[in-house]
Amino acid sequence: MIIDSHGHYGGCYIFDHHVDEPELMETMYANGVDVAMLMPFPGTKEEKNIHDQIYALSKKYPGRIYGMISLNPHYDYKDYMQEVERCVDMGFRAIKIHPLGHACPVHSRDADKVFEAAGKFDLPVIVHTGLGVPFALPSVVIPRAKQYPQLKIIMAHGGGYIYSAEAEMVAKEYDNVYLETSWVGAPHRVRSFIKSCPGRVMFGSDLLNNVESELAKIRSIKNISAEDLELCLGGTAKIVFNL
Question: Given 179, 196, 226, 229, which residue has the most CB atoms within 10 angstroms?
Answer without folding.
Answer: 179
